[in-house]
Amino acid sequence: MHTVHSVQALLFEDTEKTDASSDKLSELRALVLDTSAFIQGFDTNDNETKLYTTPLVLGEIRDEFAKIRVTNWEHTGKLVVQMPNDASLKYIFERARRMGEARTLSETDHSVLALTHQLAEEGKQTTLVSDDYSVQNMADELGLPYKGMNTRGIKRRFQWIHYCPGCRKQYDKPQQDNICPICGTELKRKPGKKTTRRAEE
Predict the structure, then answer these.
(1) CATH number of the structural domain 156-200
(2) How many CB atoms lie within 10 A of CB 190?
(3) What pTM does this model have?
């Protein structure tokens, strides 16, 4: 059985279980859906909120019910499928690289984050819907509102510490080709110091 969540249920969950900066339907004009939202059976009958996603997300959808919803939403104009502009993609990639998340986030993840950023820059009140903790962590760092379908959402965000299992050297930033410049060993990573989630600051 597919679990279906309405926009109303998604927006008016208990505040401890929601991740968006606003839970008022009247203030939420655009939702950007990542693959996990479709997999979890996201659905809505609300006509005031526009849905957005990217072609890369649609390429990952295998569920037939989700495909039917996508087709119907596209036909009625409810769902807009578009790639973000180059400026937003570059911005997200650079920020992810600085955080050490560039290798964790997939091309699809980058696309939904960039689209959320682009829509926000265009003045739309936008929230990203994702159950992916890496995506949530990145969205929180960028100050982009987000909501989870089933997860409680992150309470802390962190940056990765990159370390060499050979010489034990640690780096707070990604190194070129993910290789230790001292001994040439491939770097690994672990969570660094946690900080309070932006919404709680």
Answers:
(1) 2.20.28
(2) 10
(3) 0.67
